[in-house]
Amino acid sequence: MARDRLYPEPTGEVRMSLSLRFAAGSHKGMIREGNEDSGYAGPRLLAIADGMGGQAAGEVASSEVISTLVQLDDDVPGSDILTSLGTAVQRANEQLRVMVEEDPQLEGMGTTLTALLWTGQRLGLVHVGDSRAYLLRDGVLTQITQDHTWVQRLVDEGRITEEEATTHPQRSLLMRALGSGDHVEPDLSIREVRAGDRYLICSDGLSGVVSHQTMEEALASYQGPQETIQALIQLALRGGGPDNITCIVADVLELDSSDTLSVQLNDTPVVVGAVAENQLPLNSADNAAMQTPAGRAAGLGRGVPQQPGGGFGPPGSGDDADYGSMPQDGSFGAYGDDDFTKQRGGRKWLKRSFYTVLALAVVGGGLYGGYRWTQNQYYVGANEDHVALYRGISQDLAWLSLSKVEKDHPAIKLQYLPPYQRKQVEATIAEGSLAGGREKIDELAVQASACQKEELRRKAADSAAGSVPSDEEAAENPAGSPPPTGSPAKNSDNKPKATPNPGPSLSEEEQKVASNCGKQ
Q: Where are stretches of biased composition, namely Gly residues (predicted)?
């Protein structure tokens, strides 16, 4: 797939232009009853949305977002592509909010979104959720988006490792998604492209099953985009296909008007996933069906041709990879009819009810399990002007607070901690156990006590150094000579003078950390 743009040079010559060749594919996987992913690949816009919300809400959310963004594919490329992307995302989020207001049964629906907008020389990237975008350049695959998940935040804060994140029970819990509030904050960035770059956008049905290294090997092969899509989906199915699998592969090519490949490519957009599966043929007499979100996204006003046999890829996006013969249920590509077969009964309503109850139980159990996990975590943080030990993690999930004060320590004042340690406490210090939290509290208590005593000793020394002798003392003790040995110093009332207080003494532990008191 490509759109050629040739630019005349001042000399009258024509220089090479960059073009996109793309393919898209989607599969419901081996576990899910339906497909809640939606994908769109066109000459300017590449986008994937992974819906959630149960029943039909997930597919409605993803379809609606794709249908809202798809007009960007027709817009004339502008200089401010990030503004265009940001505005479209907010419009899509608002549309989901209005739909929930009109139909309360859609409450709780939402969707991720990862999209690339092509200008001919650059790509604008918008990202919300845990779908991903990757760049393969010079044979090296790099993830260019960051997951907006609870687990990724724990990784960023150093509480768990990348390896632990891959198996964490709450790795799919999103912190950002379209439809989750009145306003959404997407990640927006500009990507400078090179000829030879290959981009991948995918839902977590692929990235959560197939390893980074395996995806890199598949993308670095010499196959075209459509063949690569087939290979990637086969890999995800081979890994069990626990979720819907949707991906888009786009190659950046350098072409001129005489290039044979440029003649073979076309601008036909491709719609896959929930959007494609829910649409009716464009010449259907039932035009009312085209008013659905899926229908609006699929219609596009372009006359998108149906793929034979329910195929997954666009015509002209690569050599024929036999997508038309790829079954959507039970097998995929080279797998036989008996591979991945699911038992089917006649009482579909009972089966669907069972799966609905099971899904709700899994989601509820997962959320409860995640909350229980947070209550086994501890951290040290600030509580107004002093230190406290907290149970949980230092963040809130919507209306739910995930932490509470386990034990307050008002005696450990922040003002007496060294600046570097004060900053650590204010940013919170994570501890994996109650014993670890108590140990950190004891350490801070010794440090604060040492610094407080050092400050008192310094004040006492300053006070003693600032005392001035009286006139009688100066006459009796000229030239600052010391008083006779054995005779205590006296004041004007002929009473012995009190020895200046050196300040509180430091314990052995406090002496070891006293040097840290001024440390920045």
A: 301-316
